[in-house]
Amino acid sequence: MKRRTGFTLIELLVVIAIIAILAAILFPVFARAREQARKTSCLSNMKQIMLAAIMYAGDYDEAYPDSQITTNELDGPGCTHTPTPYQGALHIQCWGIRLYYPGTGLTTKQLAGYPLRLNPYIKSPQLFRCPSDNLVDRWISGNERGSYYFRHAHDAYVASGFGAVRMSVVMRPAQLALFVEEMWHHGGADPYAWNGTNTGSKASNAAFYDGHAKYMSVPFVTPLGVANYDLNWFFQGHHWHFPSDPFDI
What we know:
Blueprint: H1 9-59, H2 89-96, H3 113-122, E1 149-150, H4 152-162, E2 177-180, E3 202-208, E4 213-218
Antiparallel strand pairs: 1-2, 2-3, 3-4
């Protein structure tokens, strides 16, 4: 009786089929685990940035930084040095999400806006970018922007003539976010927007004035019944919640 020394074709096909089935099951699991790790890293980055803003305030008479550009720095195209109360999308392009100044004429990259102010407390500009952020931004070059948007309402408060936003001014620090990943949820063909027919919830990392950060669902309509078109004007049902603010609800 001959001893069999190999596999039959059917046995090989069965093994290959089993491997294919396992791969189909496990690869998506690994991909989700990898993306979850990136999200966790992004959330950790945001918390460190928020804590840096709190340390900054501790060094500057409890005044938080803003994202304006100082007069001896370079502006982006169409931008002014200081945000004004009602800039809309221009705030995203010029101040809110800018990490570096435009590269034209610069031999090395120069930090801009709030990253420039907070970098002494962080020591690593890479923290201003999320590992899973691979979106193409229609407002600003991917080489010049960060991943975490600075609250528009914060800058608008300063630009309205109320002075720096101080720790004592923020009425609900645990409910108001200074940094968010998703910022522009008004209908439009851009990476950050709901379209006109998709009015369901989205999720975003957010870092709050009290120092905590979390991944949370964001409804299309706030509890106040207002379209949540810009997370930095309406967030978690609240508008600004700064005293003496004429737009406070």
